[in-house]
Amino acid sequence: MDFELDQDQQMLAKTVADFAKNESPVERFRKLRDDDVGYEPAAWKHMGELGWLGVPFPESVGGFGGGFIECAVVLEKLATTLVPEPYLASVVLGGLTLLRAGNDAQHGAYLAPMIEGDTTLALAYSEPQSRHDVTALETTASPDAMGYRLSGKKVWVLNGHNADHLIVSAKAPGGVTLFVVPRDAKGLTVRVAKTIDGHKAAFVELEDVIVTEDARLGEEGSGAAVLDRTLDYAAAAAVAEAVGITTTMLDMTIDYLGTREQFGAKIGSFQALQHRAVDMYAEVELLRSISMASMVRADQDDDTARRGDVSAAKYQLATGGIWVAQQSLQLHGGIGATDEHDIGLYFKRMYALNALFGDEEHHVARFANDPSFVEAST
Amino acid sequence: MNLTFTEEEEAFREEVRAWIQAAMPEEMREKANGEGHFTPEDSAEWHRILYEKGWVAPHWPKELGGTGWDAARRFIFSEEMEMAGAPQLSTFGLSMVGPLIINHGTDAQKKRFLPKILSAEEFWCQGYSEPSSGSDLASLRTTAEDAGDHFIVNGQKTWTSYAQFADWIFCLVRTDPSVKKQAGITFLLIDLKSPGVEVKPMLTLGHTPAFCDTFFDNVKVPKENVVGGINNGWTMAKALLGHERTLLAMIGPSRHTLVKLKKIAATRLVNGRPMLEDPVWRAKIARLEMRFRAHLMVSYRALAEQQKGRMPGPESSILKLVGTKLIQEITELCMEVMGENSLTWYNHNVVPAVEESIGPYFCYERAATIYGGSNEIQRNVIAKMILQLPSS
Ligand SMILES: Cc1cc2nc3c(=O)[nH]c(=O)nc-3n(C[C@H](O)[C@H](O)[C@H](O)COP(=O)(O)OP(=O)(O)OC[C@H]3O[C@@H](n4cnc5c(N)ncnc54)[C@H](O)[C@@H]3O)c2cc1C
After folding, report:
1. Residue B308 contacts residue A1 (beta carbons within 8 Å)
2. DSSP alpha helix (H) spans, B191-341
3. Are residues B258 and B348 in the same domain?
4. What confidence category does residue A209 fall into, taking pLDDT thresholds of 50, 70 and 90?
């Protein structure tokens, strides 16, 4: 048993952390909040050149042959200064879906340029009625002389407003199926929606969008299983980000407790706040520890082991992690409730991560409904 | 990063598991699976069985009676012991004063005390707390007056667990009242059969005979029974505290009680169905199990550090805080699942055997957040030592 990153991973962590600190401090995210895109293609390209966008992909598709651990390392460090580039949306949601579902030609066409930093991806899987059930779809893929005709609505497509290609889930005659659709396809309309955490997402409407056979990822009906895995990756990714965020929030709060004075004393000398800070520290360490388990398990095919740790990790994000976010804000007093102070930006990102990829109740239920849960009692 | 045990380690786990099942006497095994009201005699018997096998002190150096196992094997061993529900061994000798003597004792002390700790010929108890000195331990008032080649000890210790079954007590006593309170304390080993010692047992909330008041009235103690030097007792106490921290993570009890919890929920009915099939109850159990996983990972991280021969990182400081709260929540949910059956108190064949042990255990574990440095004191220490928050 070993919880240490290997040397390459440690190096990666350090380079990304340095980038976040020196080249993308929180002010950069602040400025880009008001931008139409919300991030910079040049920065994305830079990440491609540094190899960060290719870490979880095999060399055969232009990647660096790492695993999901590398992805989690990048996400955690980017989160420390809220770097706005769509790593989670494009590399994890889009990229890992394409990797699992696509063929060589599709990898070459859509994955390779993303890894280079020339394009971005988005995954359009969620619908108004679906709430974490990837099979509860109303979007249809009807066979057509050209291939398929896609019609339906997708909501909260992260990076959907700017992605070059969207991966769209739809019900084909053979079941839930994934298709690659260019964002500028005829019949596809994108409405941009701002998100609570200062990012942008898309509401996507597909009206008789025609795609050819080679836009289909895998066989008809293969989509649900792929999405299931992708959402485990995404949940583990959210947790990795949350580790970066809560660690930063805790650091900021400890700093504040050590500088702010009231009643003639540093507020950090008040025992009520010291104990609160210790409990926050405990929750962050619990999150960090279970995040390590979930980033390792996310790559494993054993459903019970993977789901168990990923759900336990997302549950800790939703409980301990969210509590840390709340307390960090509280301990900053009035300044914490302004838009001027950074603590609130981290706070809002935590709530976005909490709502995405399965919330608390979803993961509790999934954990409790795994067959292994009852077996343990017999 | 790699979160699995090696094949050899898993094979070792199988070996330990099989041995425990074979080695436990029938009656003990029944208690382990069912009621689990182990007596101190059960614990002593299990101690002797482990001693015969050579497995009683895995964490001691091999030349002094340890097993020579690495950290992973020791961890697996204790996990298996706890999963099997085996009686807990008295920790005072094996895990507290034993290691302290190993690290700070004289050769004569090692020869005199260690073999009898291993063989269960002598049991120990801990004499720190006093009626007026609990969390503020350094304020202790039991005195040891210099009388040439020996001390004369006077005072009262309280909450001395299992003193009525013990042969020896390790105490913190005041040897110099004129200096700063931490500087005048000595770590002293006292034979409980000495004239002037009186032990008065009292019941715990779980009606186990754990607590005692221990009185010292002009007790003569030879100076060779000082460990670590006169007036150096506070340093000894701190060294010992380091051993306690990982003991109190409650990994084994939590895991074992979670299994019991599911067993109970599988048989108790709600709306005509086993509670384990009811989504609401199932979710309540799942939440605790998920928290246990996160807690387990923190302890695995500490273990992995030990395996590399390093000190566990600062995160191990939260193990007592989180683990004791968790075992309280688990035992509390057991009570809740039992419903009216949770009223039972030391009956036989009134409720299923597995439920019979819960009430006393639930009551007993309320103490987990109090002893071993109360959780409030833990927070004080972490705030200062790890978060480095300003002092008032
Ligand atoms: C089951 C059990 C077994 C025990 N076994 C032994 C034993 O074998 N040998 C032995 O020597 N002792 C033993 N103890 C005693 C134990 O170490 C003490 O109970 C413990 O140190 C607390 O001291 P106290 O009981 O005097 O509580 P107090 O110190 O009086 O504390 C009362 C309350 O105040 C809080 N408090 C105190 N000081 C502070 C502070 N500075 N900041 C914030 N909160 C504070 C405490 O956390 C607690 O909640 C045992 C206790 C229990 C419950």
Report:
1. no
2. 233-247, 251-267, 279-307, 319-338
3. yes
4. very high
Write the single-letter amino acid at B79: E
For residue B195, what are the domain limits?
A: 124-232
Identify the residue among A285, A315, A324, A359 best suited for mutation to test binding to B, counting B beta carbons within 10 A and taking the highest: A285
Position A378 scores a pLDDT of 44
Which residues in chain A are contacts of B245 at CB distance < 8 A? none
Asked if residue B374 has its Cβ within 6 Å of ligand 1, the reply is yes
Question: Where do you find CATH 2.40.110.10 in chain A?
Answer: 123-221
The confidence score (pLDDT) of residue A220 equals: 97
Pocket test of ligand 1: the residue of B126, B202, B370, B377 to mutate, having most ligand atoms within 8 Å of its CB, is B370
pLDDT tens across B219-241, in order? 999 999 999 999 999 999 988 87
For residues B53 and B63, what is the distance between their CA atoms, to the nearest angstrom? Answer: 16
Q: Is A185 on the interface with B (CB under 8 A)?
A: no
- Could A377 and B266 be called an inter-chain contact, meaning their C-beta atoms sit closer than 8 Å? yes
d(CA A98, CA A102): 5
CB contact under 8 A, B389 and A268: yes
Question: What is the pLDDT, as a whole number, of residue B176?
Answer: 97
Instruction: State the pTM of this model.
Output: 0.96
Q: What residue spans in chain A does CATH classification 1.10.540.10 cover?
A: 7-119
Digit-coded pLDDT (tens) for B136-183: 999 999 999 999 999 999 999 999 999 999 999 999 999 999 999 999
Residue recorded with tokens 């609990």: B134
Per-residue pLDDT at A262? 98
Residues B24 and B84 in one domain: yes
**Which residues in chain A are closer than 8 Å to B259, comparing Cβ atoms?**
376-377
Supply φ then ψ for residue A126, to 5 degrees. -95, 140
Please check whether residue A53 is in contact with residue A47, taking contact to mean a CB–CB distance below 8 angstroms. yes
CATH level 3 topology of A123-221: Butyryl-CoA Dehydrogenase, subunit A; domain 2 (2.40.110)
The answer for B 226-285 residues in CB contact with A (under 8 A) is 258-259, 262-263, 265-266, 276-277, 279, 282-283, 285
User: Could you give the ipTM of this predicted complex?
Assistant: 0.96
B159 & B41 share domain: no
Q: Do the Cβ atoms of A5 and B321 come within 8 Å?
A: no
Q: Report pLDDT digits (tens) over B278-293.
A: 999 999 999 999 999 9
List pLDDT tens digits, range B298-317: 999 988 888 888 888 888 88
| Burial class for A369, CB neighbours closer than 10 Å (0-12, 13-18, 19+) | middle
Asked if B289 is an active-site residue, the reply is no
Cβ distance of B293 and A293 shorter than 8 Å: yes
Ramachandran class of A186: left when φ > 0, alpha when ψ lies in -120 to 50, beta otherwise: beta
Report pLDDT for B35: 63
CB B170 within 8 A of CB B95: no
